[in-house]
Specification:
By secondary structure, this protein is α+β, with helices and mostly antiparallel strands. The protein is built from 12 helices and 7 strands. A hairpin with a 7-residue loop joins strand 1 and strand 2.
């Protein structure tokens, strides 16, 4: 939180960098004011008049000592206040005519009030006000009801109030500045957290896309190599599937990586994220790769669409599970996919009838597919289980809350 001071900014910066020199200038100004005021007679026929009285040498000495003490007002605040009070008491009880030595006490009391807490300020201020005023009324040469005595009480009280107000304002500004800095740190931490979450989500999408399509390309390329000499027509069909799978992989990679572009980039993708609406296309790629898949989708009669995050998570879980079936399950394997809405959740189940050895291979793999499925489900407040089935095969079951 900054304040624009214009032409006074360099002066304020110098004053903050040289506090002792600043206090010396203040002390010199206070000395000049006290000396000039000591030549004024407040009881002139037409108000205060200058040059009608002359201060005593002791009063001049007290004014010089009081001003000199003010040079150290911020380093030794209470000591300076005690010294100025003592000088002021000496002047109030002996000075005739009285010199304005109390000005140094007023400045010292203001400094103390601006640098300490409120209870301490008012305890010391009340003692100072009562002590100086009492001495001025009882021991001074003027009558106890003289306006100069009341003026001492008023000036010391105003000094304490002004210093307390300055301290409160500084504390208020510091609190606002600290709150703004804390809010800025909170915003930065929230932004970093969101960036980390987005990176993790994009990493999961990239893994799902690459693992799915590369597995299909690998299978179809193996088929093409196996039947190239004896059945060139089937090899040609397998290569066509390789071309389609690679094109799909490139398109999805382009769409996913496009999320990292700026919002105004014309190359950013405009098509929606995949979901259960294109589940048939996904299953079709596996069927072309030689994996029989049965599908059953039951989302209820109301026909309410699933939230986008749940729709995408269900699609990715099915994609990763079928990819694992194609990569790890034995020959002549069959898979079943079911998506059922049960109450406030959607349950996604992918089964295959592969052998026990295939299940062990999948469980021992070092990939991130199973971890990615669990992270997707957990991010939505759901759960995901993957493990071998009793009697052979593998089962993936995910529960995704709709709300």
């Amino acid at each position: 939180m900054t304040t624009d001071l214009g032409a006074f900014a360099p002066t304020r910066h110098w004053m903050r960098s040289h506090p002792l020199a600043t206090d010396a200038v203040l002390a010199l100004g206070a000395l000049v004011s006290m000396v000039v005021g000591s030549f004024a007679d407040p009881h002139g026929p037409h108000g205060p008049t200058f040059g009608t009285q002359t201060p005593e040498p002791l009063s001049l000495l007290l004014m010089v000592l009081g001003a000199a003490a003010l040079v150290f007002r911020r380093r030794h605040t209470r000591t300076v206040l005690a010294v100025t009070i003592g000088l002021c008491l000496l002047e109030l009880s002996t000075g005739e005519p009285r010199a304005p030595v109390a000005m140094s006490t007023v400045i010292a009391l203001y400094t103390l009030a601006s640098l300490t807490d409120r209870p301490t300020t008012w305890r010391i201020a009340l003692l100072t006000m009562a002590g100086l005023t009492g001495v001025a009324m009882l021991a001074g040469p003027l009558p106890w009801y003289a306006q100069e005595n009341i003026g001492i009480f008023a000036w010391t009280g105003m000094a304490a109030a002004a210093g307390d107000a300055v301290r409160s304002r500084r504390a208020f500004i510091d609190a606002i500045r600290e709150r703004a800095e804390r809010a800025e740190r909170t915003r930065e931490e929230e932004a970093r957290r969101r960036v980390a979450e987005e990176r993790l989500r994009i990493a999961r999408d990239l893994h799902d896309v690459v693992a799915h399509h590369i597995a299909l390309v690998n299978v179809q390329a193996g088929v093409a190599a196996h039947v190239m000499d004896k059945r060139p027509d089937q090899a040609k069909e397998a290569l066509a599937h390789v071309r389609d799978a690679s094109r799909s992989a490139l398109n999805e990679l382009r769409a996913t990586v496009g999320l990292l572009r700026q919002s105004g980039d014309p190359e950013a993708p405009t098509e929606p994220a995949p979901g259960l609406a294109v589940l048939d296309e996904l299953v079709g790629t596996f069927r072309h790769a030689g994996l029989p898949v049965k599908v059953m989708v039951e989302l209820g009669r109301d026909g309410d669409p699933l939230p986008a995050a749940v729709d995408l998570a269900a699609y990715r879980v099915i994609q990763e599970a079928l990819t694992n079936v194609r990569k790890h399950a034995g020959p002549e394997v069959q898979a079943e996919v079911s998506v059922v809405r049960v109450g406030a959740s959607v349950e996604v189940t992918v089964l295959d009838d592969g052998g026990a050895a295939a299940a062990e291979d999948r469980g021992a793999g070092g990939g991130h597919g199973l971890l990615g499925m669990r992270e997707r489900a957990t991010a939505l407040g759901g759960s995901c289980f993957a493990g071998p089935r009793f009697g052979g095969g593998y089962r993936v079951h995910a529960v995704l809350p709709v709300a």
